[in-house]
Amino acid sequence: xxxxxxxxxxxxxxxxxxxxxxxxxxxxxxxxxxxxxxxxxxxxxxxxxxxxxxxxxxxxxxxxxxxxxxxxxxxxxxxxxxxxxxxxxxxxxxxxxxxxxxxxxxxxxxxxxxxxxxxxxxxxxxxxxxxxxxxxxxxxxxxxxxxxxxxxxxxxxxxxxxxxxxxxxxxxxxxxxxxxxxxxxxxxxxxxxxxxxxxxxxxxxxxxxxxxxxxxxxxxxxxxxxxxxxxxxxxxxxxxxxxxxxxxxxxxxxxxxxxxxxxxxxxxxxxxxxxxxxxxxxxxxxxxxxxxxxxxxxxxxxxxxxxxxxxxxxxxxxxxxxxxxxxxxxxxxxxxxxxxxxxxxxxxxxxxxxxxxxxxxxxxxxxxxxxxxxxxxxxxxxxxxxxxxxxxxxxxxxxxxxxxxxxxxxxxxxxxxxxxxxxxxxxxxxxxxxxxxxxxxxxxxxxxxxxxxxxxxxxxxxxxxxxxxxxxxxxxxxxxxxxxxxxxxxxxxxxxxxxxxxxxxxxxxxxxxxxxxxxxxxxxxxxxxxxxxxxxxxxxxxxxxxxxxxxxxxxxxxxxxxxxxxxxxxxxxxxxxxxxxxxxxxxxxxxxxxxxxxxxxxxxxxxxxxxxxxxxxxxxxx
Length: 622
Description:
Helix content is 61%, strand content 1%. By secondary structure, the chain is mainly alpha-helical. The chain has a two-stranded antiparallel ribbon. Helix 15 (298-310) packs antiparallel against helix 16 (316-326). Mean pLDDT is 84; it is low at 24-31, 106-114 and 267-286.
């Protein structure tokens, strides 16, 4: 497997998208740039994992973790800004101007969509379409679910409570006198094999069944944590627990295709415009169910789930499972370990609560059943509507490990993306880099910070130009100037126009290679739209001013050097400085003045050899 040269690959993505930034911002297709960056990071991560199984000493767990975190962050950036680009294209800038992060503060459904016959499913879609923050939180939850680490699910086991039912039969035989007396262990086992027997009789299942049930509910929770409720339902059915599968399906939103509007499906034509496809084709690809589906009493089901979650006699992960399904926070936090787990718990509660409120306040024609018997259920952690408060609480958490994890570089950057505080983050990052306050882990993400800023700016969002410029300059000096010189022009072209000439000229000032190599760097700059004439002139000025000048020799000290005598390094550098401007015919007039001035300086110092070599280096048509 060939090693990915990340520096070159990222520069290639920047070059390929640079000429199309405006079109990307207008069409909403610019998110593909972040996807390409994500794919590159993921490819590097896969290579490191592959090396682990080939040559173990080449594998670095820390480096693999870094690339996994970077690819995950690119994924988040693409998801969130895809929504913001859509809002920007629609003329709604609330996602960029709302600093409160208060979920549901502007949760309104357009009047044209309001209807007494609206189903819960349609209402939830309308809520997502009308509230940018809710849509972003839902996408954040989806990202947290899909980026969760892999886990080992429990194996499928046929035969419901096999060992418990065997124990019950053994007890019945003992009671009938057919066999010996039952053991104490058997006495502690339930006498009825139904799902509620343990809570009703306050007894346990057989040891083997209890172990499996513990692993099963842990797996079910892990599936729900990863947004894979369908896998959880399938596992229950395959393990001969269809009743538990039914208890999980109660969260499906009620919908009825007879009450839902026809889907408005558009396709893109060859010339890039959109057109509505005909009704026949719509029916062919309509994914709406033929019959009513979902749970019209979803709110009642959630109350029952909350009651199960609050029951301390249930397994911890079973409580967390039903708490997550009901949008309850308390029991989910009990099993959370990582920063992502905690954030998912809060965001899941925020999204579920807001959807429930939206459906409840919509005044639908079909009202679900009400119940007051579960009104005693209380929560220590009420739903939080402000995502910023959640992230701040995690960064100052009482648990040192969680607090440290929340302040890791990528987590801080992810928080800035979620809160739409990327401009503030860039300003702070650039300031701390200039003052030397960044630690090694923060300095390492410089490449990511720069490319994320270029991507977001290319989508049409305003970012602090001075901060981006200072970061690009540092990136050029530390990463590109020595090993990737042909990539420098690509990043200089991203600077503000007034800085491009000076920065590229300073870069060329340090190049002492042969003339063809240096002229090629000028050609690369021209390909990226840089003003090579102004750059050549400025590079000459910088080189000549940096080299020590000679004082004219007088009297007996004056002596002429032999024309064939070798010249020193400073004279060689001055001659090469003139080559920058003699390589461009547009600068011949300026080059003539500078050449004459330098020849005169050489002659006054008796350096006829240097003057001769300078004149011999001039082009034939000069």
